[in-house]
Amino acid sequence: MSAHDEKYLDFCVAYALGALDGDELREYEGHLKTGCPICSSELVKHRKTIGFLSEAIPQTSPSSTLKERILQEARRTRQSSGAVQDSPHRMQVKRVKPRPWLSFGIAFAVLIMIVGFSAYVSSLFKKIQEQHENIISQQNKIVELKTELEQKEAILKVLESRRIEVVTMDGLQVKPIAYGKIIWDPEKKVAILQVSHLPSVPKDKEYQLWVIKAKEPTKPISAGVFAVTVEREMESFFKVQPLEVVDRKEIGAFAVTLEPKGGVPQPTGEMYLLGKATLN
């Protein structure tokens, strides 16, 4: 038998898959020990192919059940192909050479198809996930633009008033560079708060605006809460709750403190901004 017998090349796929057993396994491993360069080269190629597929998509490796089914089918094919019935007249029938490698080759091709299809499904799922994330990002952007538009409309509404007042608030010791303004329509009792350089707040905190009465400075009245998510030099505008709880003549000052999220009835946190309201 030639050292380069065709059957040894046929054994390469099954051996690379770990599906070769019995006498064929021992025979093939013995042949490899002879250092056959052709068989060694073919085996390296098959192992590289299998290794690439397993590394590319490890989650799609065939299960032990699938492997057992492939082996059973290979054995069945080998048995049926090698069976030769004697005729009643004892006719000489040429024995068909069994080719178990054919089953292994088919199994290997099926495995490649499964891995390829899994790669396609994985790629498709990734694209769907990316599109979903893009949709969410666009929805968030729409919400931001809508909020910004509402703020600008509120600012214009105040600025269009016949008479407006502006109260300037300065940053205190905790953040000296911060500042703010109350742009106020005393007739309609609507106002806009503008702040700058206020630090961003944690998720469980919010800034709270207070109206301080001139005659009752120890009992400030809440005018709403707001959050600064990114500290920046640009001005941030916030709509103030209707100031109907007090008369304009009673207002002595405005202040901003840092409080628990949702606000509190009376100030408990550090004061960041303070500005006196003077009558025009």
Notes on the structure:
The structure is a single chain. This protein is of the alpha+beta class. The protein has 2 domains: 1-80 and 98-160, no CATH class; 165-276, Immunoglobulin-like (Sandwich), CATH 2.60.40. The chain has helices spanning 6-17, 22-32, 37-56, 64-82, 100-159; strands spanning 165-171, 179-185, 190-196, 205-213, 221-226, 236-240, 251-260, 271-276. Strands 5-4-7-8-1-2-3-6 form an 8-stranded antiparallel beta sheet, covered by helices on one side. The protein is rod-shaped. Mean pLDDT is 77; it is low at 83-96.
- Helix residue percentage: 40-55%
For the termini, the CA-CA separation is: 114 Å
Mean pLDDT: 77
Low-confidence stretches: 83-96
Order of helices and strands: HHHHHEEEEEEEE
Helix/strand/pairing category: alpha+beta
Q: Using DSSP, what is the number of strands?
A: 8
Largest sheet: 8 strands, antiparallel
Name the overall outline: rod-shaped
Q: Note the quaternary state here.
A: single chain
In short:
The protein is 44% helix and 20% strand.
Question: What key phrases describe this protein's structure?
Answer:
280 residues; alpha+beta; Immunoglobulin-like; 2 domains; rod-shaped
Element layout with pairings:
Blueprint: H1 6-17, H2 22-32, H3 37-56, H4 64-82, H5 100-159, E1 165-171, E2 179-185, E3 190-196, E4 205-213, E5 221-226, E6 236-240, E7 251-260, E8 271-276
Antiparallel strand pairs: 1-2, 1-8, 2-3, 3-6, 4-5, 4-7, 7-8
Helix pairs in contact: 1-3, 1-5, 4-5
